[in-house]
């Protein structure tokens, strides 16, 4: 083969894989109206200065199973930082092998959500962190038990004093939550190919992915899934146009209705943030759908009233896979040593 | 205060805290007959070359909960590297919240033990690694399920091919165990104060600790708890002189008898390795004793026929706390992404 024919083949391959620069630039400008890249620095959080000492403490707490009454379940059990920040289960397994009611949302980039949980009942990550620790089907502990546990270990005394300087009684359930929030603010995943695209390097997304992005905007996905997290910013009924079957949308879970007691919030949920979505199957609050293409199809019929074609579904899914960012690298923490004062594990399930 | 009186006070303090150099040197020479320091390099293991690629793969596998059928329990669940390499529970909690029969031994320095498990039924760490993965009360998986799981994820295909170059079918249950063994060989804790003492720096152990070491040798503890791990090298009846109560030594667990079916091996267990012992409460195969001083007292009466005085117990315990070494620092692994081929979690308990 001559060098010339090889070159023209390569040129052809590039032509197939990447849209023309002009088209890409139009798409980029349109995309910028809807989406924002993940910042490469740790974002600030409200009413909680994110310091290095607080992050270090929060990391210990995030991985410490002794925040649960069994001493077996940590935040990382259901929000596994090696697995996209969730547990890849339909719904989580907690204290006494009890099944939780909803699919565990990822902790990655959660700092960018408008509020936490599928129904947004926690206004921020420090409020969220207090929930699972106390939930009987999750970590089954209590503020008093957590405080007694942390106060029993000298290394925690030191770490809390450093993270909350000048406070009279630095170890508290509130400060536990603040430290965890500070650590979680570091769990962001910048540098995805979509972020690079948004920053102007349109060549990192191939033709199929760009076509998927165009469809994502044109069919209306982006009206709910926008912003930094492509979701996580607002509340919408699951089934705007057509309710999915009870297998996907169980009748017993009425979503935000339980929070607001407002009739028109029945089956309303926070739009799922789509960052790293390929890492966090199964999908939806019910965790009933394992396949991302199937999830896209369901969204089409239930939210948009669109029977997306197989080709459209493939393209949108290809686009969604460009949302996988650089996963946070974490040095596994060495945890404080227990003392005779540390409350003993409680394995029994109290109902 | 004059400089001179300050100096003489300091001299006095030093005199109180550290024995004379001559006494320390005698003790050091005696100690060297019984004990060996932990090497500062990763030891080799039999029939399994420890390579960087194998260690990296082994680390992923060690932290991957998808080796369990629930996709919730990893090696690190019961051998938590942030908590001394065990779970600080009486006996471990496994699949379906079932309680395991014995206290989880630490994985730290386990590579130096003569054999694995409390009854030594696994000859090495690669044999050990296959046990909990299959045990119904632990991870409740099977070789076939593990292989199907690993083969379903392209990133594991790549990692196994790198770790086991030239093999036709690198993903296998055997190779899973070999990779875990290679990673576990890195989980050693050198540079404890006792190691520094053994290397000749006798000043790192104070008077009480050195007195404890002397007692540890003189009362006979060191006849079973010797070598690199101060234990883990041989099998002995629990209750050589006097059987402890059924609360500490439950009648139903006959130890090595179940392995060898030899009558005189009833209630015979591997002498517990004592490295990092202050991090791994509760103690004994039953996990019934939370207090290290109490454990020392029980060993005195049951194994040596000695009612150790409170002062002796305190000194021996002080010595045992010099066995805490530098804990291994591990970068938490980002795990391979599941595919549609990955077996789904099985949460039911099959009895």
Automatic annotation (TrEMBL), chains A, B:
Keyword rRNA-binding: no
Residues the entry annotates as binding heme c 2: 221, 224-225, 299
Signal peptide: 1-24
Subcellular location as annotated: Periplasm
Keyword Zinc assigned: no
Any one GO MF annotation of this record: cytochrome-c peroxidase activity
Domain of life: Bacteria
Cofactor comment: Binds 2 heme groups.
Main location, first listed in the record: periplasm
Cofactor(s) needed by this chain: heme
Free-text description of this protein's post-translational modifications in UniProt: Binds 2 heme groups per subunit.
One GO cellular component, as annotated: periplasmic space
Keywords: Electron transport, Heme, Iron, Metal-binding, Oxidoreductase, Periplasm, Peroxidase, Signal, Transport
Domain Cytochrome c: 53-184, 207-324
InterPro entries tied to this protein: Cyt_c-like_dom (IPR009056), Cyt_c-like_dom_sf (IPR036909), Cytochrome_c_Peroxidase/MauG (IPR051395), Di-haem_cyt_c_peroxidsae (IPR004852), MauG/Cytc_peroxidase (IPR026259)
Binding residues for heme c 1: 75, 78-79, 95
One Pfam family this sequence matches: Cytochrom_C
Protein name: Cytochrome c peroxidase
Organism: Cohaesibacter marisflavi
């Amino acid at each position: 083969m001559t060098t010339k024919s090889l070159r023209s083949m390569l040129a052809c391959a590039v032509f197939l894989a990447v849209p023309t620069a002009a088209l890409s630039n139009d798409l980029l400008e349109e995309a910028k109206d809807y989406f924002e890249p993940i910042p490469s620095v740790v974002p600030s959080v409200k009413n909680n200065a994110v310091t290095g000492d607080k992050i270090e403490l929060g990391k210990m707490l995030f991985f410490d199973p002794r925040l649960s009454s069994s001493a077996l379940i940590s935040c990382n059990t259901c929000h596994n930082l090696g697995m996209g920040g969730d547990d890849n289960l339909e719904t989580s397994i907690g204290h006494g092998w009890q099944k939780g009611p909803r699919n565990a949302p990822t902790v990655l980039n959660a700092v960018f959500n408008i509020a936490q949980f599928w129904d947004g009942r926690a206004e921020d990550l420090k409020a969220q962190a207090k929930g699972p620790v106390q939930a009987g089907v999750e970590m089954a502990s209590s503020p008093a038990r957590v405080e007694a546990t942390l106060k029993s270990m000298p290394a925690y005394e030191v770490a809390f004093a450093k993270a909350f300087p000048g406070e009279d009684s630095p170890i508290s359930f509130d400060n536990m939550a603040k430290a965890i929030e500070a650590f979680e603010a570091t769990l962001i995943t910048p540098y995805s190919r979509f972020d690079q695209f948004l920053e102007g390097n349109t060549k990192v997304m191939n033709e199929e992915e760009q076509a998927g992005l165009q469809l994502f905007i044109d069919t209306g996905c982006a009206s709910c899934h926008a912003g930094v997290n492509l979701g996580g910013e607002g509340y919408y009924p699951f089934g705007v146009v057509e309710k999915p079957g009870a297998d996907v949308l169980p009748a017993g879970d009425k979503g935000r209705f339980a929070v607001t007691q407002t009739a028109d919030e029945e089956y309303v949920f926070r739009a799922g943030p789509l960052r790293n979505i390929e890492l966090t199957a199964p999908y939806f609050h019910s965790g009933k759908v394992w396949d991302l293409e199937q999830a896209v199809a369901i969204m089409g019929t239930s939210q948009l009233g669109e029977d997306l074609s197989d080709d459209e579904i493939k393209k949108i899914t290809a686009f969604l896979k460009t949302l996988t960012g650089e996963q946070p690298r974490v040095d596994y923490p060495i945890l404080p040593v227990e003392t005779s004062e540390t409350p003993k594990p409680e394995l029994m399930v109290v109902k």
